[in-house]
TrEMBL record:
Pfam families for this protein: Aldedh
Aldehyde dehydrogenase domain span: 2-434
Organism lineage: Bacteria, Pseudomonadati, Pseudomonadota, Alphaproteobacteria, Acetobacterales
Protein family: Belongs to the aldehyde dehydrogenase family.
SUPFAM superfamilies: ALDH-like
Native species: Acidocella aquatica
Gene3D superfamilies: Aldehyde Dehydrogenase, Chain A, domain 1, Aldehyde Dehydrogenase, Chain A, domain 2
PANTHER family listed in its UniProt record: ALDEHYDE DEHYDROGENASE-RELATED
Protein name stated in the entry: Aldehyde dehydrogenase
Coiled-coil blocks: none
Keywords: Oxidoreductase
UniProt superkingdom: Bacteria
Amino acid sequence: MPVASSEDIDAGVAAAAAAFAGWAHTADAERQALCNKVADIIEANSEELALLLTLEQGKPLGGLGSRFELGGAVAWTRATAALSLPVEVLQDTPEGRVELHRKPIGVVASITPWNWPVMIACWHMIPAIRAGNTVVIKPSSLTPLSTIRMVELMNEVLPPGVVNVVTGEGRVGGVLSAHPGVGKVVFTGSTPVGKKVMTAAAGTLKRLTLELGGNDAGIVLPDADPVQIAEGLFWGAFINNGQTCAALKRLYVHDSIYDAVCDALVAYAEKVPMGDGRLESSVLGPLQNEKQFDLVRELVDDARAHGGRVLLGGAPQERSGYFYPITLIADVDNGTRIVDEEQFGPVLPIIRYSDVDEVIARANASQFGLGGSVWSSDIEKAKRYARQLECGSVWINKHGALQPNAPFGGVKQSGIGIEFGVEGLKEFTTIQTVLA
């Protein structure tokens, strides 16, 4: 990848700033049509992008891998293109008329991670340009190529300067976050880096959307059917090899069905093949990078040393690449690193409980609050418990099922701001109140 200099970053911001006036005043219907053309060109080139994504990220082409990610990117782009923010009339009386107008902010800096690099880039860029902003995107230095190519394609249909890309390591994101020509930063990544972005942005009081780390808890109530929920539990935890912010990271299971749930998960997980992402037979691939591989190995070793019982996996595969097998660990609890920290890999700790009210408190005893789930045959009871979880999104009998019309964002140290739907689109605007 190119490594951007400070001059390159300035040039990217300047190009976006020069394009902003014209783009912001483009008719709303035309911006909508151009966003749909972006979806068309991504879709038309999705197989090329999927292969590039597999080569640099590791996820398989098939299943819930690269083609799935490209499909999600197209779907989110079309859904966002369909949104609008009409003028709201707050008052219309003989005393006067009050209107609420939403205006684009200016240049938006997008800083994206390595786990879903194409789809998250669309989550950032499309609502930004739909609302009339221009963008400078900085992809992860671990997965820059698919984003560079996608931006190249987008520039075949968008006016010059509306979307720009600069690449390099963390320094580039820091420069963008502090840049006086940037009006908003949208960042997806770890909480520690999110705090650095927030600090850098404070100098010019930039608007922020931060989607940060998670340690999502799932709670299985005693009336759940272990076999029926096993598949949903598995993919809630292991989609993208566990490398997902809103994946199921710790599973609390009632004592009465604990062993049955463990057995059902092992039986399902044993049948999921892991291998080279270019092979159509592979359902999961390797971890993306050495740092994450080492962390997963360290957390599993620590859990074993503190009494954790490895039900499946538990040691790196003896093969080239960062392949760590699907790992299920029983008999661990809060206070163990594998429960308290975000593993971001193919490992799920399974924790026993006996009192539902007490386990809600244990689930909430975290600095994170991105997602959570409750599993039960009684939907209304599950909803009552779900509302007690301290997280931005909560699912019933599924986990991590994001959709473009459902607002998504974290509480506590899992982030600031909202993505998706009309509420997410509003995040890329400022309010102007007109009183007449």
